[in-house]
Amino acid sequence: MAVARPMRRTSPITFILAAFLAFGFLVFLLSPSPSAATTTNADSSQQRREGAAENPLSPPTKPFLKSQPVRDDGYQAPPPVVHYNLNSLTSTSESAVKGERVLILTPLARFYQGFWDNVVKLSYPHELISIGFIVPNTKDGNTAVAALEEAIGKTQSGPVDSRFASVSILRQDFDPPLQSQDEKERHKLENQKKRRESMSRARNSLLFTTLGPDTSWVLWLDSDIVESPHSLIQDLTAHNAPVIVPNCYQRYYNNDKKKWDVRPYDFNSWIDSGSAQSLAESMGPDDILLEGYAELPTYRTLMAYLANTDDPNPKRVMELDGVGGTALMVKADVHRDGAMFPPFPFYHLVETEGFAKMAKRLGYQAFGLPDYFVYHFNE
């Protein structure tokens, strides 16, 4: 009997290959998906790759990891044109989930190990954080830079997840008005105008040099803030406010109570008053209003005194007319729109209080968190 033509062309190898492919398909369907940790590590690596600078003209908020190719004639190829679409940049209440980049900026005259330890403990993804410092070009500044570089070196050579996207250190190109950084000297009334105008210049130099086109948030954090919640960035950005500031307190030993206690420290976050406005109207064009001095009774409502330390509600929010800069979170677009720290009397205000006024003139409201605390070093 003759065999059908199709059966004569069928080979046993065909059945073997079909069985092998079917087995492979089943293995693919039944194999477990990658673990959450693997996915997280992959996302972290991807974010670090996306954050890497591609040419020497990249802003200092990006780590420069790639070198330009050398052409056949031996010369280095010119850097490419880089395009940034600011319309796609977001600053939202879900900053960490959306991978929004944060720039921490710190004017630094003295180095406190507690400050750096506190920054390293921040739980916001470190690959999304860039840090910038500006230090006076003085003997004390040299000492501070040496200690700072040592601390940075340990962190940036440690575990990958602890490393920041980039760290920049700037040196001031002008002399500070005060040679002494003693707390009593810094806070004398007669030193405030020149000190705070100098601070404004330092803040602006730092801001304009380091603000990158992919920066969503700017956290101004003073170098003597040695304690804050590890979730500081997430907590502040969660309010989705253009400008927001926590309450700055200080821990100290209360001799009357014979135990450790807390007290207000920063009095620059306030609601304006009619008395302050009248006082400003009587001033000369170069005079400034300052808070916390008996010689200038402003009778403003100070956020420092509105805290409920017994039963705090960290999410309680209030509108402010002036802000302090000890821990100040700002949407980067507020700075891009022109709000900076006036080194001149702006409505008789300078530095951070002048910044709040300038931001408000641009249409941005400042907010405060009276029951959310960061702590200042106690000298």
Account of the protein in words:
With 379 residues, this protein is of the alpha/beta class. The chain has one domain (92-376): Alpha-Beta Complex (Spore Coat Polysaccharide Biosynthesis Protein SpsA, Chain A), CATH 3.90.550.10. It has 11 helices and 12 strands. It has helices at residues 5-8, 12-30, 36-50, 113-120, 139-156, 183-186, 189-210, 232-237, 274-281, 332-336, 351-361, and strands spanning 101-107, 129-135, 166-171, 215-221, 225-227, 243-254, 259-264, 270-271, 301-302, 318-320, 327-331, 366-376. Strands 1, 2, 3, 4, 5, 6, 7, 10, 11 and 12 form a 10-stranded mixed β-sheet that branches. Helix 4 links the parallel strand 1 and strand 2 (129-135). The longest helix is centred in the middle third of the chain and has 22 residues, at 189-210. Residues 1-8 and 34-39 have low confidence and may be disordered. Pfam families: Anp1. Residues 1-37 form the signal peptide. Belongs to the ANP1/MMN9/VAN1 family.
Number of helices: 11
- Overall spatial form: globular
What is the fold-level CATH name, i.e. the topology? Spore Coat Polysaccharide Biosynthesis Protein SpsA, Chain A
Q: What proportion of the residues is helical, as a percent range?
A: 25-40%
The structural class is alpha/beta
Order of helices and strands: HHHEHEHEHHEEHEEEHEEEHHE
Report the sheet-strand fraction: 15-25%
Intertermini distance: 107 Å
Largest sheet: 10 strands, mixed
According to CATH, the homologous superfamily is Spore Coat Polysaccharide Biosynthesis Protein SpsA, Chain A
**Any low-confidence stretches, pLDDT <50, length ≥5?**
1-8, 34-39
Q: What is the level-2 CATH architecture name?
A: Alpha-Beta Complex
Radius of gyration: 28 Å
Number of domains: 1
Number of separate strands: 12
